[in-house]
Amino acid sequence: MSAPPNRRLGVLISGRGSNLQAIIDAVAEGVLDARIAVVISNREGAPGLERARRAGIATRTIRHTDYNSREAFDLAMVDELERCGVGLVCLAGFMRLLSPAFIHAFPAAILNIHPSLLPSFPGLDAQRQAWEHGVAVSGATVHIVTPELDAGPIVRQAVVPVREGDTPESLAARILEVEHRIYPEAIRAVLDGGWRIEGRRFVTGGAPRGVL
Ligand code: GRF
Questions:
Q1: β-strand 110-114 against 35-41: which pairing, if any?
Q2: How many separate domains does the chain show?
Q3: Is residue 54 part of a domain?
Q4: Which CATH number goes with the domain that contains 132?
Q5: Does residue 146 sit within a domain?
Q6: How do residues 81-128 score in pLDDT, each as one tens digit?
Q7: How far apart (Å, rounded) are the C-alpha atoms in residues 141 and 131?
Q8: Best of 13, 113, 157 to mutate for ligand 1, by most ligand atoms within 8 A of CB?
Q9: How many Å lie between the centroid of ligand 1 and the Cα of residue 132?
Q10: What is the pTM (predicted TM-score) of this model?
């Protein structure tokens, strides 16, 4: 059984921040027993930063363009997260690939949300990839981050049926609704402990991880 990370969250964003907002709301409503210690954006003026400020959460902008290597940028973020006492890092629309140096600084303590049923459709524009492929169901996945893109142990998944007449945009909008539901649930599951990683499986000893 892995020891669960401490309940101080660091949320990394690049843009809109609607998943960040879902986490802020879950904490405020008391359904997620955690504290958001810091929100870091790699883009100045990301709308999510304003959401954090409105909630009284500390924010930092660490621009990847100010560093001459991915490692240097990542280590600047690690420094800030450690300074803030962060136990669990949550990627919420963070558009940079993390280096092994970052991932090793937070072993099994970095989560990401991805808008497809992984391992289908990793990478960018997953909702459009699924729509163009013609799948009948898609969804969202929260997983532990490993060096391979969108490939770490799956903590939670939810299914979203594709409707006749859907566009990539309408499908993405319905997937986003379930993202907002499962991300706080997945964070809670990780913080509550009682799980372990076996191979690439997140094993909970019975708690359901899938949502239809
Ligand atoms: C979400 O669809 C998330 O799954 C993906 O990037 C998008 C971020 O949206 N990783 P937001 O910034 O949380 O609104």
A1: unpaired
A2: 1
A3: yes
A4: 3.40.50.170
A5: yes
A6: 999 999 999 999 999 999 999 999 999 999 999 999 999 999 999 999
A7: 17
A8: 113
A9: 19
A10: 0.97
